[in-house]
Amino acid sequence: MEVVVCVKLAYDETQIPIEGDKLLLEKAPVKVSDIDKNAIEEAVRIKEKFGGSVTVISVVTGPYDETILNEALAMGADKAFIVEGIGGTNPARTAKAIAEVIRKMGIKYDLILCGEGSSDQYSCAVAPMLAEYLSIPSITFAGKLEIEGNVIRGERLLETGYELVETELPAVVSVTSEINEPRIPSVLQIMKAGKKEKISVKSSDLNLEAPNVDLVEVKAYVRERLRKKFEGNLEPALREVISVLREKGVIS
């Protein structure tokens, strides 16, 4: 079973500095997107069960440190393809880049796995777009997968319940965090991962024509507090509190 995993290097949302309502993304470290780790884990489990290989493809759209991908390789992936030079936050262009790398580099695949959405932008658009570019079926939001012969079954986690769907391989599948618990590679595995093959692909060598999607601005949620102090006896103070709450539309 030849499995390809799409991995995004996302901003670490727990360490993004904030200045007023501005997110200082240029000062935030990057990491392997959390849900993509679930996709890597599922790919490695499939390899362990059926044999074959796991190939990671990462399209770099922001700050990049090659060593961060060592975590994905240490978890059990065999090699990685890295596409640099693609700026912005356009999921259509990201999906097109992955499809073009697969075609240009002759990457064989029976299954392509993605996280349901990246832990920073969470557009949930790359997987179905990639399936469209490759003209193969897709299953999204899978919390459980079963493979039998040339058929893959996915249990989709929806707001209203569960949906069981199946399709023939090859296919693109996006997984949720409920599908597994990603393994934590040892220091030795991470060190060995540094010797695994990482192949860089120039974005200028790819056909990246895609619909334009521009992210204009990202603002932090800022909660403004009234900071009003009520003094005096209890009953008059309560009446004043109620009056202010009504004025602000909190109560009617």
From TrEMBL:
Domain Electron transfer flavoprotein alpha/beta-subunit N-terminal residues, every copy: 20-210
One Pfam family hit: ETF
Superkingdom of origin: Archaea
Record GO terms (molecular function): electron transfer activity
UniProt name for this protein: Electron transfer flavoprotein alpha/beta-subunit
